[in-house]
């Protein structure tokens, strides 16, 4: 009898979820680029991305990974450190940490980063992994815009 109730509950939940029209999460842009530490060995920075959820139901953003290019210099991969919950009908900014070594970057590009400052062109490309329960989806992200370097 308990198995029947559980089966009925799961079937009802699947039917309820399948009737709902879900819209994709949207990345609204790069809200900031903050360098925590930079030296000749590598960089530790935070990329701030705006994420908008047009649905009334919240989602979770799972660990995601993005390639980051700043003023034509490939800085490596930015990763989210943990799973983040996004509320329904919300537009918030989330931080992704970038840690990279400079083994593939020449010394002149490192000097441009150190002395650069101001506004630079940041390109973030990758997949944002979001979902609820067992439903997960990769949302392609390709954002290129000016961001203030802090």
Can you lay out the helices and strands and say which pair or pack?
Blueprint: H1 2-19, E1 26-38, E2 42-53, E3 59-61, E4 65-70, E5 73-79, E6 84-86, E7 90-101, H2 107-116, E8 119-132, E9 135-148
Antiparallel strand pairs: 1-2, 2-7, 3-6, 3-8, 4-5, 4-8, 5-7, 8-9
What does this structure look like?
19% of the residues lie in helices and 56% in strands. It has 150 residues and is of the alpha+beta class. The longest helix has 18 residues, at 2-19.
- Please provide the count of β strands: 9
The residue ranges in which pLDDT falls below 50 over 5 or more consecutive positions are: none
SSE sequence, one letter per element = HEEEEEEEHEE
Shape verdict: elongated
How far apart are the first and last residues' alpha carbons, in Å?
A: 61 Å
What is the overall pLDDT average? 77
Which range best describes the helical content: under 10%, 10-25%, 25-40%, 40-55%, 55-70% or over 70%?
10-25%
Reported for the largest beta sheet, the result is: 9 strands, antiparallel
Nearest-angstrom radius of gyration? 19 Å
**Helical element count?**
2
The SS-based structural class is: alpha+beta
Tell me the strand percentage band: over 45%
């Amino acid at each position: 009898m308990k198995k029947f109730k559980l089966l009925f509950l799961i079937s009802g939940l699947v039917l309820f979820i399948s009737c709902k029209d879900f819209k994709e999460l949207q990345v609204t842009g790069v809200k900031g680029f903050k360098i925590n530490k930079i030296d000749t060995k590598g960089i530790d920075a935070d990329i701030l991305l705006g994420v908008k959820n047009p649905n009334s139901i919240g989602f979770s953003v799972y660990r995601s990974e993005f390639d980051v290019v700043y003023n034509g210099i490939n800085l490596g991969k930015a990763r989210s450190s943990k799973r983040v919950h996004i509320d329904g009908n919300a537009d918030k900014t989330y931080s992704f940490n970038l840690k990279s070594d400079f083994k593939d970057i020449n010394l002149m590009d490192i000097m441009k980063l150190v002395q650069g400052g101001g506004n630079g062109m940041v390109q973030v490309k990758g997949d944002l992994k979001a979902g609820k329960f067992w439903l997960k989806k990769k949302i392609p992200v390709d954002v290129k815009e000016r961001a203030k370097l802090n």
